[in-house]
Amino acid sequence: MKISVIGTGYVGLVTGAVFADMGNEVVGADIDQRKVDRLNEGVMPIYEPGLEEMVRRNQAERRLRFTSDVDWAIQNTEVVFICVGTPPKNGGETDLSFVESVAVKIGKNLNGHKVVVNKSTVPVGTGDFVKKVVLMNKRTDVDFEVVSNPEFLREGSAIADALNPSRVVIGASTEDAAMKVMELYATLEAPVFITDVASAELIKYASNAFLAMKISFINAIANICEKSGANVTEVSKAVGADQRIGPEFLNAGLGYGGSCFPKDVVSLERTARKLGCDFALLREVMKINDGRVDHFISRVTKRFPNMKDCVFGVLGLAFKPNTDDMREAKSVTIIQQLISMGAKIKAYDPVAMDNARDIISDITYCDSAYGCAKDADAIILVTEWREFRLLDMRRLGDLMKSKVMFDGRNFYDPEKKKSMGFEYYGIGKGEI
Ligand SMILES: NC(=O)c1ccc[n+]([C@@H]2O[C@H](COP(=O)([O-])OP(=O)(O)OC[C@H]3O[C@@H](n4cnc5c(N)ncnc54)[C@H](O)[C@@H]3O)[C@@H](O)[C@H]2O)c1
Q1: pLDDT in tens, 29-84
Q2: What domains are defined for the chain?
Q3: 146: closest CA among 181, 186, 112, 94?
Q4: How far, in Å, CA of 74 to CA of 92, rounded?
Q5: CB-based burial of residue 26 (10 Å sphere; 0-12 exposed, 13-18 middle, 19+ buried)?
Q6: Is residue 76 helix, strand or coil?
Q7: Residue 372 is among the residues annotated as catalytic for this protein
Q8: Residue 333: pLDDT band by 50, 70, 90 thresholds?
Q9: What are phi and psi of 56, to 5 degrees?
Q10: pLDDT tens by residue, 236-276
Q11: 160 pLDDT exceeds 90?
Q12: Which residue, judged by its Cα, is nearest atom 11 of ligand 1?
């Protein structure tokens, strides 16, 4: 099938690469000329395990190409995927201007029947909006369909997720359009849910908001644990063993970040309000999440009441492991707050330091976790990269000024760290 993917960010690039790998002819189109040039040179704009190899292989076999000529991409394909960003506006509502500008282009370049598939995360009702914009801009008498096909991939495991999705959701108003999109996923062994467009749009928000709610829930429990002497790791293990609840997204920590959960939760709350359905629960989810960094910093402050000239080694900067994405990363606010209290920061991340440099200055970037630990008053683990589990902790501790560790993700075994002489502080495990 001839497919275009408009927007070659995390979602568009992975989607395009995977569809090409399945034998389709794919054009990735993006208005960012530099991104397109780099992709054409085989340089990935993002870090994603397995992506570079898949993109290069399909470029070499001429199933995948990239262009900044969005008009050309639309004209020459029968299925057009919209994969542009949907960031929040100041008030939290979703900014649909990127989606709208693509819809205008689709209308203007409608030279034959096309299926327009919205993969961007968009508020319920956007399918109708896209349809209206295309209709207003089309110059020919050809038909088109608008389908919603939300994306559930996770950064850091995006290729694996796209090849092995938990489910495929296709929201369409005609069977033909649904079947056309389903054909693309036919080789994957995933359950397919065919719904109306509005339901598909809502499924994405309901899923992300539910996961965010689980995270905030366990973080609220962690606060109770700190006051009561309970251990949140033990609590969440046993709570998650209930099949009705499940263990995923029950790790207490610094709260959710990244480019999706924060904006999707607020967007759903705003959509609900607009429709006259107060969703107070989501406001509480956000409030708990927003309080996580302050709570964490207050714990650090208890241990280091005077931070002036303290040196903290921050391990991990990306919003989660296996990605270089710094959008809504907790490291940014943690570092800003510590600096404002007079601390000096050294930081290390396996892949996100280039992106971090654009956002965080006035800190020392180190080339390893050991560099970070040297002469540090404490280590603060922010992102639980696997390589941090493999560190030689004795060497790390010997390099530090004082062997204090704040584990923002409950990544390490407290007893092991204590037996190595570390003063260890996790989340939801006793007061400081
Ligand atoms: N990142 C994720 O993990 C993830 C997962 C599921 C869903 N989503 C959703 O997918 C959508 C895209 O997210 P992303 O993280 O890939 O965004 P991104 O910011 O990484 O990429 C968006 C791309 O669209 C391009 N673009 C913007 N306007 C354009 C236009 N008019 N024509 C062509 N290209 C244009 C930008 O240059 C950019 O390269 C969002 O709605 C997001 O919520 C993201």
Answers
A1: 999 999 999 999 999 999 999 999 999 999 999 999 999 999 999 999 999 999 99
A2: 2-195 (3.40.50.720), 217-290 (3.40.50.720), 292-425 (3.40.50.720)
A3: 181
A4: 31
A5: buried
A6: coil
A7: no
A8: very high
A9: -60, -40
A10: 999 999 999 999 999 999 999 999 999 999 999 999 999 99
A11: yes
A12: 120
Contact 252, 411 (CB under 8 A): no
Q: Name, in order, each residue with C-beta under 8 angstroms of 145's C-beta and a sequence gap of 6 or more.
A: 114, 115, 116, 172, 173, 174, 176, 177, 180
% of residues, the chain, pLDDT over 90: 99
Using an 8 Å Cβ cutoff, are 29 and 77 in contact? no
CA–CA gap between residue 388 and residue 412 (Å, rounded)? 9
CB 102 within 8 A of CB 30: no
Could you tell me which residues are beta bridge partners of residue 429? 231
Distance, in Å, from the CA atom of 383 to the CA atom of 322, rounded to the nearest integer, reads 10
Beta carbons of 404 and 307 less than 8 angstroms apart: no
Q: What does the block give as tokens for 255?
A: 């709260």
Q: What whole-number distance in Å separates Cα of residue 273 and Cα of residue 143? A: 34
Cα–Cα distance for residue pair 216/255, rounded to 1 Å: 7
- What distance in Å separates the CA atoms of residue 159 and residue 146, rounded to the nearest whole number? 25
For ligand 1, residues with CB inside 6 Å are 6-12, 29-32, 35, 70, 83-86, 98, 101-102, 120-121, 151, 153, 155, 259-260
- DSSP H helices, 360-413, are 369-373, 393-399
Q: Which of 15, 36, 84, 95 to mutate to test the pocket of ligand 1 (most atoms within 8 A of CB)?
A: 84
CA atoms within 13 A on the CB side of 385: 23
Q: How far apart are the first and last CA of the chain?
A: 60
Residue 309: left if φ>0, alpha if ψ -120 to 50, beta else—which one?
Answer: left
Q: State the Cα–Cα distance between residues 369 and 311, nearest whole angstrom.
A: 14
Q: Which of 260, 310, 366, 372 is catalytic?
A: 260
pLDDT of residue 89: 97
Q: How many CB atoms lie within 10 A of CB 315?
A: 30
